[in-house]
Amino acid sequence: MTAEPTTETVRPRRQVLCGLMVALLAPGALAACSTEAPAPSGGPTTGGGATGGTTGGGEGDGALASVADIPDGGGVLVDGPDTQILLVRDGDAVKAFNPACPHQGTIVSPPSGGTITCPNHGSTFDAASGAVTRGPATSGLAEIPVKVDGGKVTLA
């Protein structure tokens, strides 16, 4: 037969557990309360190689990006006025897509080898058209009208 825990044994364990929880949660809470702004983007970042990455967009003149910032045969995610935009380049032609996967809204990865892939469930899309090539997504990426003017990509 085991004895019931007494106040003398329960209180120290509770204090240790509470202290442990505070220690684990406090750094995250402090970081969330920080008022320091992140350093400004110094330009595009092409992440995982020559096929894509992300850029801060907002070239200061209403441009989403420079054509030169988009890898030929690849693409980049840029910040648009309301949401991110996936810019895809094939030579001098640039297309833009809403990067939210139609399946569950996960942001897709920039294209690699002509294919855009959703990292969440593996749906794939044709980089040239945004059409779905493998599910679970049942529809393609929505195209966003853009134009190229003076080497800059802007919303059309």
Overall description:
It is built from 1 helix and 11 strands, in the order αβββββββββββ. It starts with 6 loop residues before the first helix and ends with a strand. About 26% of the residues have low confidence. The protein is globular, with a radius of gyration of 24 Å. It is α+β, with helices and mostly antiparallel strands.
Secondary structure: elements and pairs:
Blueprint: H1 7-32, E1 52-55, E2 65-66, E3 75-79, E4 84-90, E5 93-97, E6 115-117, E7 124-126, E8 132-134, E9 143-144, E10 146-149, E11 152-155
Parallel strand pairs: 1-3
Antiparallel strand pairs: 2-11, 3-4, 4-5, 5-9, 6-7, 7-8, 10-11
Query: In terms of per-residue confidence, which ranges show pLDDT below 50 for 5 or more consecutive residues?
Result: 20-59
Question: Roughly what is the average pLDDT, rounded to an integer?
Answer: 75
Q: Assess the beta-strand content as a share of residues.
A: 25-35%
Largest sheet: 5 strands, mixed
- Number of separate strands: 11
Order of adjacent strands in the largest pleated sheet = 1-3-4-5-9
> Cα distance, first to last residue?
79 Å
Tell the overall outline. globular
Class by SSE composition: alpha+beta
Helix and strand succession? HEEEEEEEEEEE
H/I helix tally = 1
Summarize the amount of helix as a percent range. Answer: 10-25%
Computed over alpha carbons, the radius of gyration is 24 Å
